[in-house]
Design brief:
2 copies of one chain form a homodimer. Chain A is mainly alpha-helical. Chain A folds into 2 domains: 14-76, Winged helix-like DNA-binding domain superfamily/Winged helix DNA-binding domain (Arc Repressor Mutant, subunit A, Orthogonal Bundle); 81-218, GntR ligand-binding domain-like (Four Helix Bundle (Hemerythrin (Met), subunit A), Up-down Bundle), CATH 1.20.120.530. In chain A, 66% of the residues lie in helices and 4% in strands. Chain A has 9 helices and 3 strands. Chain A has helices spanning 14-27, 39-46, 50-63, 81-103, 108-119, 127-144, 148-165, 175-191, 194-218, and strands spanning 36-37, 66-69, 73-76. Chain A has a 3-stranded antiparallel β-sheet with strand order 1-3-2. In chain A, strand 2 and strand 3 form a beta hairpin. The A-B interface holds A 11, 13, 54-55, 58-59, 62, 64, 70, 83, 86-87, 89-90, 93-94, 97, 147-150, 152-153, 157, 160 and B 13, 54-55, 58-59, 62, 64, 70-71, 83, 86-87, 89-90, 93-94, 97, 147-150, 152-153, 157, 160. Chain A binds a DNA duplex through residues 8, 11-15, 38-40, 48-52, 54, 70-73.
Amino acid sequence: MKNNPLSPARNPDLRQIVYEKLKEAIVEGIIRPGSKLSEIELADKLAVSRTPVREAIRQLAQTGLVTLTPRRGAYVTLPTKKDAEDLYELRRDLEKMAVRNICLNPPEHKLKHFRQIFENMDDSTEHSEYLKEDQDFHLFLYKECGNKYLRKMLNNIIDMINLCRTYSVESDVKISSFAKGHVEVIDTLLAGDCEKAEGFMDDHIALTKQSLLKFLEEHPEGVVYDE
Amino acid sequence: MKNNPLSPARNPDLRQIVYEKLKEAIVEGIIRPGSKLSEIELADKLAVSRTPVREAIRQLAQTGLVTLTPRRGAYVTLPTKKDAEDLYELRRDLEKMAVRNICLNPPEHKLKHFRQIFENMDDSTEHSEYLKEDQDFHLFLYKECGNKYLRKMLNNIIDMINLCRTYSVESDVKISSFAKGHVEVIDTLLAGDCEKAEGFMDDHIALTKQSLLKFLEEHPEGVVYDE
DNA sequence: GGATTTAAAATGCTATACAACTTTTTCATA
DNA sequence: TATGAAAAAGTTGTATAGCATTTTAAATCC
C-alpha cells in the first residue's frame, strides 16, 4: 500500500523543477553568463513564489554555475579561460579514476552498445548527435564508477564543462577522432587493461580540452582572462 | 531615521552562521550521525526563522554531511564503511593532484614552517595537536593548489572525512609515522621532485585510510556495512 | 557637469498560513 | 491482549506579506 498507481500526476517539488529549468537555460546559453538572476523576476516568469527560486539558485551556486554576491544577488558564472583549464584538469583526473574503477568489473553489454555507436561515426556525423552520445557515454561511466562521491563530483563538474562548451558548439573538430578515442577506451576496458584505458581516457579528455581552448582563443568575446 | 543605537547587535548572513554551527556540531559528533535535523527545532534553538535553517541544511546536503529525504526531512549522514573507503580513494587522487600543482611553484617559506612543526613531533606528541596541525597543513595545500574547483572539492570532502574521523579519535596510531610522512612530502616539494612528492602523499593518505579502517573494524558500532 | 542627496528596488530574513504527507495516538475490533 | 483502522498531531514544501539593510538609480544642488 505504498505507492498508489493512480496517485496524482506528480509530486510537485517545485524547487527541483525550477532548478532543472534554470540549469537548462544556463547551460544552453538562453540565460547568458554574466547576467543577473533576479529572484522576483524569475519567480514571476515561472509562476512560483520566491522560496523555490531562492533555493534553486542556491543549489546552482553550489555546482558553480551561479555565483552569489552577498546583498547583490546571483549571477550566471562567466567562466574565465583559467576556469576552463582548471575544470578540464580536474575532469581528466576524475574520469581516469572512474575508468580505473570500471575496469575492475566492466559492464560488457552496455560498453559494447556504446562501442557500436561510436564505431559507426565519422566526420559526416551530425555534431549534435556526437554531443548527445558523448554526453550519454560519460554519464554512463559516472553511473558505473562505483564510488558515490566520485559520481557526485563528476556530475557537478560536467555542468560547468557544458557551460564552457556552449561557447564551442560550432567548433570544427573532427568527430572521427573523438569517436575513435571512445572506442579505444571501450576496447581496453573490455580487455581489462586498466592502465591503457586510463591512458586513452587521458588522451580523449586532452583532445576535448584542446578543442575547447582553441575555440576560446579564436573567439575571445565573452571569455574573461584573469590574472 | 538612520541607525537606531538600540538596534539588534546581530550579525547578518544568518544562513552562513547557521551552516557553520551545524557543520561544527555534526563533525564534532554533537549531533549524531543518523539523527534527524528538524527545521522547527533548530530554528527554535538557534533563535532564527526556518528560512536560514532550511538553506543551511540544503547547503550541508550538498557536501554529503546531511542526507535529504523528500517530505521526510534531513538526517545527519551515517557513513558506511564503503563510504569511508570511497572518500579516501577520492581524497588520495585529489590530494595527489594538489601536490602535483603545488610542486610547480612551491611556497617555500610556509612549507618550511610546517616542516619544522612536523619534524619536532614524535610518539609523545598530543594526539589533538597532531590532528590540528595535520588539518592546517592539508587546508594549506588546498589553498595553494591553484585550482579553484579542486580546492572546492577538497574542502567539501574533508568535511566528510572529518565526520568519519570522529569515530577514530582515540585511535592508537603512531604519530611519528604520520609526521614523517608530512616531512617527506614537504622535502620533495621543496626539492621540486613532483613525482616523488605525489608518491609520498599517496603513502600518507593510504596510511591515514588504513588507520581509520582498522579502527572501524575494531569498533563496528555505529558503522553501517552496506551491500 | 560632477557631487550629494533622495527615492526606488532587491536581497536576506521574519512571520504566518496552508495543503500534502508522515508519524503518532486513539480507539474499535478480533 | 494484540491488531489494525481511523483520527489527531506534527513536518515539510510552498506561498505570501512585510520589514530592515543595502545597492542602484534618479533627482537635486552647487
